[in-house]
Amino acid sequence: MGKLLFHIGRYFVLMKRVFSRPERWRVFLRNTVRAIDSMGVSSIAIVLIISFFMGAVCAIQMAYNLQNPIIPRYLIGYGTRETLLLEFSSTIVALILAGKVGSNIASELGTMRVTEQVDALEMMGVNSASYLILPKIVGFVFFIPVLTIFSMAIGILGGYVASFGTKGLTPHDYVVGITSMFQPFYVTYSLVKSLVFAYIIASVSSYYGYYTNGGALDVGRSSTHAVVYSSIVVLLFNLILTKLML
Predict the structure, then answer these.
(1) Residue 83's pLDDT is what?
(2) Contact at 8 Å (CB) between 114 and 214?
(3) Number of other residues whose CB lies within 10 A of the CB of residue 27
(4) DSSP of 67-90, one letter per residue?
(5) CA–CA distance, 72 with 69 (Å, rounded to integer)
(6) How does residue 65 score in pLDDT terms, banded at 50, 70 and 90?
(7) CA pair distance 88, 101, nearest whole angstrom
(8) pLDDT on residue 71
(9) How far is residue 140's CA from residue 97's CA, in Å, rounded to a whole number?
(10) What digits encode the pLDDT tens for the residues 190-233?
(11) pTM of the predicted model as reported, rounded to 2 decimal places
(12) d(Cα 230, Cα 66) in Å, to the nearest integer?
């Protein structure tokens, strides 16, 4: 318990240093654009691929489990859409990105720490926490809504493609389902969750990378801790936000 409180306290102390006024806005903006490219734009492909196949699998499983003449066929498309909007495109995509983006952040900062690049910045009077971490957090939080919307759209498209040739489901029934009883708030709910998850992934991963001690093996250990603990916190806040918003 004492170790947990130590890490929580040190995390908030680090975040206080991170969220300070950038010394040079031009450098901050340039680093933020680089972070958007390295963490956001580079993640588009994996998000699209996974979302497409998950949407298709959701539609097929819905069709398989709702094979009852009493149940309207359009509910398959409806259920697929609700699954993607409420949970997959925010939470599951965040867990996937925790592995890709989180490990990348932790390994990058950990390598800079063990090679004494962070110490060099401190020696020059630079707030290394803000200089290295703030652009990553801002860039990832800024771009995560784009990934979430792409995931929703491609996931629904994957379900539509799967409706061709799926027993008990036709493309017409699927389209009727995804356009029935639509609640725009579900999109807002998903986007809000994705913003919170993006902050958690970037900040927790930065914490473990920034405080890496030792050598190359410890960089790998920090990466593992970053992915594991950011995923746990994402799931915890998923429960909290779901209780608060729904």
Answers:
(1) 94
(2) yes
(3) 13
(4) --TTS-THHHHHHHHHHIIIIIII
(5) 7
(6) confident
(7) 18
(8) 84
(9) 10
(10) 999 999 999 999 999 999 999 998 888 899 999 999 999 999 99
(11) 0.94
(12) 35
CB 182 within 8 A of CB 84: no
Residue with tokens 């949970």: 87
> Structure tokens of 49?
């691929």
Strands (E), 123-245: none
How many CB atoms are closer than 10 A to CB 138?
21
Structure tokens at 125: 């009077």
Residues 6 or more apart whose CB falls under 8 angstroms from that of 4 comprise none
Distance of CA 206 to the CA centre of its chain: 15
The amino acid that residue 158 corresponds to is G
Interaxial angle between packed helices 74-83 and 44-65, expressed in degrees from 0 to 180 and rounded to the nearest 10: 140
Q: pLDDT tens digits for 157-197? A: 999 999 998 887 889 999 999 999 999 999 999 999 999 99
**Dist. CA 183–CA 66, nearest whole Å:** 22
pLDDT of residue 66 exceeding 90, the answer is no
Q: How far is CA 216 from CA 22, 106, 149, in A?
A: 30, 12, 37
